Amino acid sequence: MRAAVQHETGRPELDVRDDVEAVGPGPGKVRLRMRATGLCHSDLSAMNGVLPQPVPFVPGHEGAGEVVETGEGVTGLRPGDRVMVCWLPSCGGCPACKRGQTQLCLAGFMAAGTPNFRMSGSGSEPGSGTDVFGFAGTGTFAEEVVVGAGCAVPIPDDLPYDIAALIGCGVTTGLGAALNTADVAAGSSVAVIGCGGVGICAVQGARAAGAAQIVAVDPVASRREAALRFGATEAVPPDALADARARITGGEGFDYAFEVVGTSATARAAYDATRRGGTLCVVGAGAMDDLFQLNMFELFFDEKRILPSLYGGGDVRRSYERAIGLWRAGRIDLAGLITHRVPLSGVNEALAQMRTGEALRTCIEI
Predict the structure, then answer these.
(1) Across the strands, what pairs with 81?
(2) Which residues contact residue 88 at a Cβ distance below 8 angstroms, ignoring those fewer than 6 apart?
(3) Of 322, 321, 360, 365, which Cα lies nearest the Cα of 341?
(4) Which SS3 state, helix, strand or coil, does residue 98 take?
(5) I need a surface site. Which of 93, 125, 194, 326 has the fewest CB within 10 A?
């Protein structure tokens, strides 16, 4: 089958091959035929080494498709079922799951250390005959993928595959940061730093929560324009954030600031934009050696809440259901997030679109 493979960390382009096999399924596993997958910035971060990921690997973790085959012991799923991919499934039995913090379950991360693909070429091509990992235990840049049954979440018939794919990561992450983690209050002021697909969903989440002012911050003009279409009341480049803070909040700072880039510099900018007693919500996934620094006096004196948000910071399946409900009601726009479409053979084109900021989300149609 066809899949896109990253052979070594730092390589800017993927190798689209026809000799990749999805391994399995075994007990507790399902084989999925992928239909659509989104390109998330986390895929780029894994490719360039910001996020740890063994190589070679198939990127992609934001996908949807249908069940082709189920392994021994799998219940509740059967061939033909339409599903979205959950890259962070919960086991239901660990301490985090029992506390209701299923987004902190480590079962999915443990699965990420087991290869779920194999290259079966004759040996003339790089990597032939070797095992291949799937990013975040999935690897949706492939025609088929074998994952744990908990990674395959049934979806309703009226939900298109491309929109379901986005709900599988970016939509849930952005909406959840606003609605779960930060719990944005009606009438509040909000700044969102970083307006790619996840940042735009944070904007939509803040709007759904009833925020009065939502300032979108991004260096790319097209993304700022998009943020206004999705509910931001104002959109500014990073060097105009201080002015927006002064004008909109009287210099006090925003009630909520969302960092959706994943660098210490943007986290610091978001912290500085937050009012005393306000909330900084860190959504972006950054590098382990990029340190976010505060002095102990400001940490104590300003009493700002610093809330990291992993995968939307709440029960993932409930977040999926909420996103579908808001989409059906017309309260969030998910189709509009997809600005570009390419076939799997065009995945490197999709990577270029994300690197330049041209795309909010590129849908890879498989």
Answers:
(1) none
(2) 103, 105, 108, 109, 136, 310, 311, 316
(3) 365
(4) helix
(5) 93
Structure tokens that stand for 85 in this block: 């991919």
The single residue listed with the structure tokens 């971060």 is 45
Nearest CA to 30 out of 63, 77, 89 is that of 77
- Neighbouring C-beta atoms of residue 352, cutoff 10 Å: 14
User: Could you list the mean pLDDT of each consecutive 10-residue stretch along the chain, which spans 366 residues?
Assistant: 97 96 95 97 95 96 98 97 96 92 86 89 63 96 97 97 98 98 98 98 98 98 97 98 98 98 98 98 96 97 98 94 98 97 97 93 96
Q: What is the DSSP letter of 25?
A: -
The residues near 302 (Cβ < 8 Å, ≥ 6 apart) are 276, 277
Rounded CA gap, 253 and 274, in Å? 5
Q: Where are the beta strands (DSSP E) in the chain?
A: 3-5, 15-17, 20-22, 29-38, 57-58, 62-70, 82-85, 117-119, 131-134, 144-148, 152-154, 189-193, 213-217, 234-236, 254-259, 274-282, 305-308, 338-343, 361-365
Q: Looking at the whole model, is its pTM more than 0.85? A: yes
How far apart are the C-alpha atoms of 109 and 137, rounded to whole Å? 7
Q: Are 65 and 139 spatial neighbours (Cβ–Cβ below 8 Å)?
A: no
Q: What's the chain's length in residues?
A: 366
